[in-house]
Structure formats: structure tokens, C-alpha cells
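WARN retry 2 of 3 for item q-0093 after timeout on previous attempt; input resubmitted unchanged.
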Amino acid sequence: MASLTMPDPAELDRLDVSRGSLWEANAWRPLFARLRAEEPVSFCPQSAFGPYWSITRYDDIVAVEGDAQTYSSSWEHGGIVIFDMKDTGVQLRMFIAMDDPEHAEKRKAIAPAVTPTAMAALAGAIRQRTADLLDTLPEGEVFDWVHTVSIPLTTAMIATLFDFPWDERHKLAPWSDWCAKIDIGPDPVLNAEREGHIFEMAARFRELYDERKAQPVRPDLLSMMAHADSFGEMDEQRFIGAIALLLVGGNDTTRNSMSGMIERITLFPEAWAQVKADPARLAGGAATETIRLQTPIAHMRRTATRDVELHGKTIRKGDKVVLWYNSGNRDETVFPDADRWDPERENSRRHLSFGYGIHRCLGARLAELQLTTLIEEMAKRDMDVKLAGEIERLASCFTNGYEHIPVTMSRSHD
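OK item q-0093 returned
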């Protein structure tokens, strides 16, 4: 982790933790630890995204998420990310960026795709796909875990959920990446490039959506949307937003957790040895601990609908309130020795990586299933993975993830 100069206590309340350089350098942890301890509700008056409040303790994040009347998610107030949606080239009016009842109606329409029954139906294919990929990995050669393992596995899953044409699945990861680039700000060149990719995505999904609408309902996400009254005749911004939400939610989060797991097992080899020795007992805990520590979506944002006081600070109506999940997931009062990857941690499922309350991630079970399966199949092969170079991280305070993780791998041949 890169070194940095810690702020003077007098400057802590004005600290800007949204800077992409902090995340690219993996230098954010000590700053958030200071905020949790000394200024759990702090106001940054100036940043690339404008002024914002930082909420950094677990209980405060839960309290804000649980009060949807006071803290709105609606795109009409700015949306769910630190950068105001109205300032982007294309507005992704995701239903997660809506308040009830519209949010609840759309969520209900696609919920059948991720029920326990649906997950059980997918489990066999997930395991086979994971096993086949792991068996192709080269031993003793350097390869990029992100692009060789994480992206192929998550892209295949998204293609399955949407019943997207298999021979076009390579398009899904780049589209998801561009949808998630909320940190680029008002740069006209980057926004124009982003628009191009997003409209290309929308055009292809619209073709498939219209095809599903003309056919009997099927158990895939596009068909469920096409036949749900709550989606109806969506305008283009809402359609793009719905697709982007499902794409980013299903791709980026799982992909970066699968990549983050490699960082965990290289930092905590003794814990990984325990998981390999007893995967039936520990694989699930290893997965939830990875999701907690990785926090693949680092923040969500709300907007105050009225003046409200929190920790003696007055948040004004219209103020931007950023909930730092990455910080809540390392809150020492909830997760003792919070930086440690502990597959036996009893409360790791209390993590905030999937959000809390009415906006909790619909695909949480699926993400856990995919990651647990990967861990089980790696343990079955007695796989060890070691870093073979510098990790390259995203310069993003939203998608807490990786560009490249060079590794070498060994496995048992028993």
C-alpha cells in the first residue's frame, strides 16, 4: 500500500476521500480509519464531484440506508453515486436510483430470476464452467487472473442470466465497464466515448428485448422485464438504466470479488491453507469475508430531503450524503481485527457490500454462489496462487477493483 501524509486533525473534517489516486494506490484505509475514529460524519466542501458528506461508521450507514424518506436515492435528486447523474453525458436512470413505489415494482418483476430455486437451477452449470476454466490454467507461467479467470466467469454468468447470444458475450464486460465509469466527471471527450459504448449496448439489448416481448415469457432477465407491467413502455433513459444496473451489478461486483480473493489468499496463506483443508466448512465464510474486505462497490450516495442532524452535524436539505461501504465493512466495533481475512469470522455476513434496506442487492445470493463455488473448486485442486508482479487497480472511488493481477499458479495432481 502506498504511503501518504496523514492530515492534520484540523483538516480531517474537510478530507476528500473520493480522489481516484487514493484508490489506484490502495491508500485509502488509514484515512477512513481516522474518519471513523475522529470525524465519522465529515463534510468535504470541494472535490471533483462537488461538496459532499462522508458517512464512515457501520451503524450510521445502516441508519441512513434505513431512512429512505430522509435520504433519497432518486435520480431526480442526483442519484446513487457521488457524481450527479444530471451532469453526465447520458443519464442512467436505474431503478436502484428511484424511490418507492417505482423502485419496488421494478425490483419485484425481476426477483424470480434470483430466488433460491433459480440459484439451485444454476448451480450445476456454474460449477462445471468454473471447473473447466480452472483446469485450463497454466502452471508455472505468469497470467492475469482478472482477464483469465474473473472476467470470463462473470461474463458467462451474465450471458446466461440475460440469455444473451453466447458468441457475443465478449461485449458484456466492456459495456459494463463503461456504464460503471461514473468518476470521469464532465470531460466532454470521455463522456462522448462513454455515450457511444452505452448507446451501442442499448441498441443491442433493445433488439433482444423486443424479440422477447413478442415471444412467450421465459425465465431470463430480459424476458421477465419485457413481460412485466412495471417496466412497460420505458423511455430510453430508463431502459438504458435498467440494463446498466443489472449488467454492472452482476458483472463488476462478482468479478472484483473473484479478483480480490486472490489478494486475500496471498496476504493470508495460513487462512487459505485452512480453507483448502476443510472447504465444506470454510468456503462459504471465505467468500463472505472476501466480499466484506473487497467491498466491490465502495460507496452509494443519498440526497437529504430535509435538514437533519447526525453526530452533531447539520446536513441540509439537498446535500449529497456518501455512504462509504468500504469503511463500514472495516468498522472495528462491528468486525474486530477488521483488516484480517478470517474465513471463520462469525458475523462476516453482516457486511454492507450488498447495501442495506430496500435497495439491498437482488443478486447477493448469486454472487456468493459464484465465489463460493470458485473457492471450493480451487480447494479441490489444492491450488496455490502467488503474485508475479504489481497489482494494477482502478482509479475509482465507486468500483473498487482491478485492472490486472499477474499471478502464477500451482495445483495438486493427485
